[in-house]
Amino acid sequence: MRVLLVQPPFDPTTSKLSAIGIPEPLGLEYIAAAIPDHDVRILDLRVEGSIEEAIKDFDPRVVGCTAVTASVKCALALLRAAKKINPEIVTVIGGHHPTLRPGDCQVEPVDVIVRGEGENPLAGLVSCVEAGRSFTAVDGIVHRSDGEWTSNPRGDLVALDEYRFPARALTESMRHAYFRVGLGSILSAVSSRGCTRRCHFCSIWRFHHGKYRRRSPENVVAELASRPELVLDFMDDDSFGDIKAMERLRQLVVDELPGRTFRFFVRSDTVVRSPDLFERWAGAGMKYALVGLESFRDEELRDLNKSATAEQNVKALEILKSVGIGVLGYLIVRPDFTEDDFERLGDTVEELGILQPVFGTLTPFPGTVLFDQMQDRLVTTDWEHFDGFRAVVETALPRPEYYRRLADLYRRTYRGTGPASEGEELPWYETLARAIELIEEE
Ligand code: B12
Ligand code: SF4
């Protein structure tokens, strides 16, 4: 049976992030791998193509689309377009937003909403479509039949080694587009899913039923050894959530993947607790760490339930620098920031020598504790606005001033390598800064 899986294009502001690189659609590659006996295509609209052409050319029976909050509106429009061309198509939506707010997707173009990991639900529903059976026995979905929505049980979490490796053959023709400025061609992978922590601004732990699961180090290395890419970029939520497993992975990497470069998501408190491990990983090719620093004020970190301190953030930066691991540091700008707060954050980033800071606006994404706390204060529920830069609650400064200062933080502090993507004249952060300044309020 023919199944088309669709990655929506970026929203207007985050499209500017694509100047720094686009990761492969790993979630879709994983779910495609779960239906090996079917004819599957991946349409990555961040890179090329159109839904209309793909449907006319491929004539799929099932069309599945992925969505985070910022892309859910677009995903629904794509499924609507699919149904318009062929009303017989079974439309499926999955990913973070449909999982955490399925009600938003219980609308006309959608037949099935997949909640949580998509591998087994997709395999189950595709075989039902093929056999002409109803979806009543497929765990992890909300589905429509005769106009009524039914929510099936979520199903058990699967041991990650049971999943097939991502179906990268389906995106091979778009590989040229999966790159990162300064790193070149990259391969995205995961060694774990979920997180042990409970940050209030993050929905990952709710998405994964509060569990942190790892693939065995052997399974990870077996996947990577078959790939030619030299830069391996891990999309884990917290790569070093299990120190022993990461030490074992390092040993295997030394033996079986020499000469590769690694980038991982790490927490500052983990770095401070295990500096030796990071020194050894630096020797094994870990050149970059993505660190959710969020803030250098303890009261803000406590408020976010980050379970790390400002002191740990500072210390982790020192340790990573001393072992030669470059840091991309995520920092949260709060809508109630005053001029002084912006100045002080810029000063701190400069003083600590964070060369690649990524500033985003504190956003109550659906499914987070923050959303529960702030939902009464939202100034918009247009999900496209939940792009991580727009303020979706009132700002203390006038809004144009808020965005100008957010943009200026990039201009003032960003010192990362890599000027611009090919053919672009501006450094990527300047492209992004201009997009932030132009955010239009409705
Ligand atoms: C890589 C990444 C990106 C990449 C792009 C990813 C992409 N594919 O387009 C970049 C850097 C560009 C990016 C941008 C943004 N991101 Co981002 N990103 C990630 C990250 C770190 C990894 C994604 C990944 O590959 N995961 C691994 C795969 C295996 O999991 P998965 O994608 O969830 O897919 C599984 C299920 O969700 C499900 N599934 C997914 N799609 C579908 C579709 C169907 C049909 C089915 C059946 C199942 C299914 O099955 C898959 C396999 O189990 C995640 C965090 C995370 N670890 O997931 C955040 C995450 C998805 N991003 C997030 C956010 C907030 C953003 C931004 C808004 C922030 C910003 N300003 O940068 C933008 C929005 C961009 C946009 N419009 O799409 C949030 C989403 C929260 C939310 N409710 O929206 C996450 C969860 C991070 C977090 N901790 O909160 N992101
Ligand atoms: S922000 Fe990071 S550490 Fe906190 S819950 Fe999310 S993934 Fe875990």
Keywords for this structure?
TIM Barrel; 2 domains; binds iron/sulfur cluster; 442 residues; seven-stranded mixed sheet; single chain; 16 helices; Rossmann fold; 35% helix
List the helices and strands and how they pair.
Blueprint: E1 2-7, H1 26-33, E2 39-44, H2 51-58, E3 62-66, H3 72-85, E4 90-94, H4 96-100, E5 112-114, H5 119-131, E6 141-145, E7 148-151, E8 179-180, E9 184-189, E10 192-194, H6 204-207, E11 212-214, H7 217-225, E12 231-234, H8 243-256, E13 261-266, H9 268-273, H10 275-283, E14 286-294, H11 298-303, H12 310-322, E15 326-333, H13 339-351, E16 356-361, H14 369-374, H15 399-413, H16 428-437
Parallel strand pairs: 1-2, 1-3, 3-4, 4-5, 9-12, 12-13, 13-14, 14-15, 15-16
Antiparallel strand pairs: 5-6, 6-7, 8-9, 10-11
Helix pairs in contact: 1-5, 2-3, 7-8, 13-15, 15-16
Bound molecules: cobalamin (B12) and iron/sulfur cluster.
